Hints:
single chain; alpha/beta; 6-stranded mixed sheet; 14 helices; 20 strands; globular
Amino acid sequence: xxxxxxxxxxxxxxxxxxxxxxxxxxxxxxxxxxxxxxxxxxxxxxxxxxxxxxxxxxxxxxxxxxxxxxxxxxxxxxxxxxxxxxxxxxxxxxxxxxxxxxxxxxxxxxxxxxxxxxxxxxxxxxxxxxxxxxxxxxxxxxxxxxxxxxxxxxxxxxxxxxxxxxxxxxxxxxxxxxxxxxxxxxxxxxxxxxxxxxxxxxxxxxxxxxxxxxxxxxxxxxxxxxxxxxxxxxxxxxxxxxxxxxxxxxxxxxxxxxxxxxxxxxxxxxxxxxxxxxxxxxxxxxxxxxxxxxxxxxxxxxxxxxxxxxxxxxxxxxxxxxxxxxxxxxxxxxxxxxxxxxxxxxxxxxxxxxxxxxxxxxxxxxxxxxxxxxxxxxxxxxxxxxxxxxxxxxxxxxxxxxxxxxxxxxxxxxxxxxxxxxxxxxxxxxxxxxxxxxxxxxxxxxxxxxxxxxxx
Length: 456
């Protein structure tokens, strides 16, 4: 393990607590606080199913409520990641001088474990799960948490003290970080996203960089030296930098590098990129990030190589769900922004029939024109973003790519399947959020899978 000492956590603010937002992360933090004997009041503007059962452990639950009327009864507000700073209860709390603390911060303060925290626009879940897999391969105790799987707060009081906690951190979580200081922080990449939440790209980047802000001299800052947004920028904090990069750029002092198709740790070869089970050149970069973080935290090089070679991937991330009459059907429902969808398209040599669209998040789709023109024979446009996609992809249509307005997921999948020739790929890579038609990207991916299975 890394020799860096575990840092003491700041105490939690004094309760009673008002937890705002009772979906996955909010319900988990409300439950953990209640299990510690704290007085907890929860509220949500909707009626999330995750809130069921909280009343049975002593949490006062208020649904279909903005929570402003509850502020007089509490001394601290805990904000779930999905709740914006502009929410009335958050603005009212700050106006009153009531402390507002984020779910990530609360969970970290309740967990005394060594932390590896992973952020970036794309690849967070894959890298987080890959680091956990590498640790397990090495026989080292580990607990993995994230936005999609296990909420971080649910690990409190249930995780062995010698386990390393690996967690993915979104900008929504990090913007509320106060003292959060992981022993190892990982920054993967940066691209326009969530501009419906962050006013500007700089605000979005500043939120991501908070992952480094409170690190000390004994900590490590793993970062992508090829990422243009980080070049010449002070990462913040005082951690030891551990860059990773490709052979075509980045930092000459990269700890982990990709050279002539081989991932190296210094001069030592870890694995050939062609041996990675994950599809796409971007996953070689994800593998470098996971290797750099694991090695920096003391995992043996042999175990790192074995872990990279045996990781099967994460559902809804370039997941091959079937092959029918020589046509692979691939689910990348987690490609919820332009950069992720472009990387998915470039994971294939050509002959792609791409399903694009969903709910809008701000920004344009012009960044898809080149990869669509290079790799696609046709695109099937769905959801509220279909019209905007059609306009922005007009240059690709002029270059010969067919653009079809589909009536929904089923229409898109069946149309693509009917037209596909052997060797072509039907790829769900929406470049959009899912909330116009689905609960989340997972539900969208499962719907894609069910339609494909019905074709067999």
